[in-house]
Description:
Blueprint: H1 2-5, H2 8-25, E1 33-38, H3 45-58, E2 63-67, H4 74-78, E3 87-90, E4 93-97, H5 100-121, H6 126-132, H7 138-153, E5 158-162, H8 166-187, H9 191-205, H10 212-233, E6 237-243, H11 247-262, E7 267-275, H12 285-301, E8 306-310, H13 321-329, E9 344-348, E10 354-359, E11 368-373, E12 376-381, E13 384-389, H14 392-395, E14 399-405, E15 408-413
Parallel strand pairs: 1-5, 1-6, 2-4, 2-5, 6-7, 7-8
Antiparallel strand pairs: 3-4, 9-10, 10-15, 11-12, 12-13, 14-15
Amino acid sequence: MIKNLLKKDNLENLNAQNEEQELQELPRADLPRIILFTGKGGVGKTTVAAATAIKTSDLGKKTLIISTDPAHSLSDSFSVELKARPTKIKENLEGMEVNVEYELEKHWETIKDYLTIFFKSQGIDDVVAEELAIFPGFDELASLLHLLDFYQKKKYEVIILDCAPTGETLRLLSVPEIAKWYMNRFFGIEKKLLKIVKPIAEPLIDLPLPSEEVIDKIQDLYTKIGVLKEILESPQTTVRLVMNPEKMVIRESERAFTYLNLFGYRVDCIIINKVLPENAGAYFRKWIEIQKEYLRDIDERFPVPKFQLTFKSEEVVGEKLKDIANEIYRDKDPSEVFTISKPMRIEKDGDESLSLVIKAPFVDKSQLKVLKRGEELIVIAGQWKRILYLPQSLAMREPASAKFMSGELRIRFR
Ligand SMILES: Nc1ncnc2c1ncn2[C@@H]1O[C@H](COP(=O)(O)OP(=O)(O)OP(=O)(O)O)[C@@H](O)[C@H]1O
Ligand SMILES: [Mg+2]
């Protein structure tokens, strides 16, 4: 049987299949490339996102940079006043800062009016009803709807998002999922059926049913959210985590890294910013040593390509962004996808147990060590070491067994 499987024809088929799979994993050149920048507050997300946009546009790619962080600072970074519509920054580069109030009005007003009436009919106080009718996470969704619009129009080759700090970005990236749930709950009624039922049912059930206009709006939003989710999970989109070699920053980034992976987003590289140069002076000697330790730590915790940017002696805005971009990416094109490998995933086994699957070099069982320390899992395979931040679903369980399968290490949790 095994012999059969290894016959030449079969092997060729397998190789072809693998190649095909890899090709599917690469972004398509005829569709816009989307890059999201996130990280802990103040690490340099806006600066790195802006520098990236300068470089892709210098390379001749039509680029749009969108700030989704309500505390906009892109304008300051470029020293150009940006608006709620794309504004020219330089050749091949436009930028915009999303205005949430305007978006809310545009996409949600009709639905909100209905929901307010609905909640009020249920005896909920007027003011509370209005608050409830504002869709949770709408401000984030507003930015994403813009992204969808620009993506579909194909006016830009690269779209860069300067996101809010990690916590909010994770929430933002889960909005499509939550929005679907919310809408199913509230509006899981067929439009056609509603048309027939509405005049008969309304007086009887004492519930205001949504008008056709409201249903249309909801359906439109629902479809858009579905498409958006597909785009964000497709190879066109990658997320880049910006961090500093500091304890608290690494901890927060680890959590983000784990959850981004589990939600199916692709983190294609990390950018380590504010690394002190060797010649920073005697005053920083100790800091330089501490940073070296954390750089090693980062190496063990983030199995994706890493770029570095040194701590500059002054603020990095305007003209200086170009040098920054060259220091980070050197001769590479920032719109490249730097890795397509997905470092971890969780799979449910038939019974109650869950398996964490990671890429790891093969070693003999005697050289494999798996230790769990609180929310961390330490995996040692001979000389190779990886520290993983565990998601809640695994942190509550204990590792029970481990085995290598097709280049992956599968750790079973009970
Ligand atoms: N490598 C660097 N050297 C010196 N200063 C830097 C460097 N990177 C960023 N800065 C400065 O640090 C400050 C914070 O940077 P930035 O606004 O890009 O961070 P952020 O992560 O976007 O912050 P926020 O979470 O508030 O959005 C800015 O004043 C910026 O000029
Ligand atoms: Mg910022």
